[in-house]
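#struct-help
A.M.: can someone run this one for me? Single chain, 196 residues.
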Amino acid sequence: MMNENRARSIAIDISTALFDQYAIDRGVKYEYMNAEQMTFKDASFDFIFSYNGFEHFGDPAAVFNECKRVLKPGGIMYFQFSPLYYSPFGYHAYKSIGVPYLHILFSQSDFTKFAINNHRDPVVNDPLFLNRKTISYFRELFLNKNNTGHKVLYYEEEKNNYFVDYIRKYPSCFKKEHVDFENFITSGIQIWMRRT
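D.P.: on it. Structure tokens below:
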């Protein structure tokens, strides 16, 4: 949001525990808010930025629509997020257990027990923590030609095929997920858009 003197930055989150004191000390205003139902007025912002959020939002389409609503005409949105759920580290447990496709190859109870028994950081088991959306879902959301109100300026998918040997070695584990192969090698998305 802009004023006469300088740019202002506002950050939102549904957890006050994630508010960054460093950013607050430098003038970022934090608001406790659900991105799916923002309380900002229409056309409030010149620029919207989301980093590693869209793989977590329960309803990414609702967040995207809210971003379009609160962005001023001509304003820019930038979203970057990874890892996607089906990608090698998509369960976001890499700080505790650095095994690619951990959540595909092992049961949740098995790798949770492993973390506890080996004094690793706890593995988050909240089903709302990850939305498990596929790459085709995000393509449809952001690139659909019938979408109105924004223009895609840049779109890129980050690929990670370093661990395809796991898929070759344990194909039955990957088939049970019922998703296309490209979900297992697409780690993230970066997109720039302008509101028209």
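A.M.: thanks! The chain is about 30% helix and 25% strand.
D.P.: also worth noting: The chain has a mean pLDDT of 91.
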